[in-house]
Structures are given as C-alpha cells and as structure tokens.
Amino acid sequence: MKILFATKNKGKYKEVKNIFSDLDIELLSLNDFDDAFDVVEDGKTFEENALKKAVETYSHFNIPVISDDSGLVVEQLNGEPGIYSARYSGVDATDKKNNLKLLEELKSFPKPHNAKFVCAAVYLDSKNNIITNGEIKGQIISEPRGNNGFGYDPLFLPDGFDKTTAELPPETKNKISHRAKAFGKLKQLLKSEGLI
User: Fold this and answer.
1) Where are the alpha helices (DSSP H) in the chain?
2) Which of 58, 149, 166, 172 could form a disulfide with 65 if both were Cys (CB 3.0 to 4.6 A apart)?
3) pLDDT in tens, 3-32
4) Domain interval for residue 7
C-alpha cells in the first residue's frame, strides 16, 4: 500500500517514516513527484492547515495522504510563532533566522520561557478523514544546542530532560516528540480501523 506524506521537509519525512516503519506500506513524500506543489497554508489553526494540505494533495495525486501542520507555541509571546513557525522570520525564513528572531523576541521576558511543540496530523482517502493531535511541553533556552533535528529543536528543552530536542538521539526524540505523539495516535487509529 502506498501513502503519500504531503511534505517536502526531509527532516519531517524521516521522522514519520520511522514511526510507520513497522508497517507494510510504502511512504512517499512530495519530493518523489515532479509535479509536486506547495499548498498555501492560510488556515487559522494547525488542524485547518494540515487538513488543507491533505485535501489538495489527495485531489491532485489520488493516493491516500497523511499530512501535518506543527509548530512552536511560546507562552510569553501569546502563542507565537504558532502556525507561522516555519515562516516566522519572513519570506526568506530559514531555521537559523527563525531561531534568532525567537531569541530576540524573548529577550525582554524573564526566564523560564515556557513553550510547547504542537502537531496536528491528518489521514485522508476517498472515504476517511482522521485528525489527531500531539504536543510536548518544555522551555526555550538562550543558546542553541545540538545538531540533530531541525526547526526550533536546538532551542527547545523538553520537560524532564537536560538535553534539547536537537541533542537527543533520534530514537529518543521519536518517542517523545509532538509529531511522534500525533502520528503514533494516527497510526493506531488507522490500524484499528483496518485502513493499514
């Protein structure tokens, strides 16, 4: 069975492929297609954006689709960067620029900088539409640490750990992350419904 993960993000793809690795499915990404396109993420919530990606990708490729929208929610910044996490620093956003902007925005606030990573995951085919959510709580530190992971991982210290999500080995991160939780729930639902 083929399932298309509606992403071009290689880090995300690797994480989710790992979560689904014990199943007899071929997980594709948008990088496997020449006619892949970017979905405009103009929803107001992670769920809306994830669903929009799934719907547009499914209607184009006609293959069962999984998608997600995820981001960092920082308490002192009223939930920012939130759904704008990937493009927080503007049109030419990079992980580095986003991290620098986040640190700049938090400079005037006292520590700890409580935050959480949030993920909404979607499965969509011709008959089914399933949405699950996952989150991991922690705090933002003032200096990036670690080379594993991507996005805000070097600045995020999960509760109960002394290493950032960029310092944790992938197998540990893949057990505790917001994406692991959301896609883990999704996987269990798909199995119980007999869809995979």
Assistant:
1) 10-19, 46-61, 95-106, 170-176, 178-192
2) 58
3) 999 999 888 898 899 889 998 899 999 999
4) 2-192
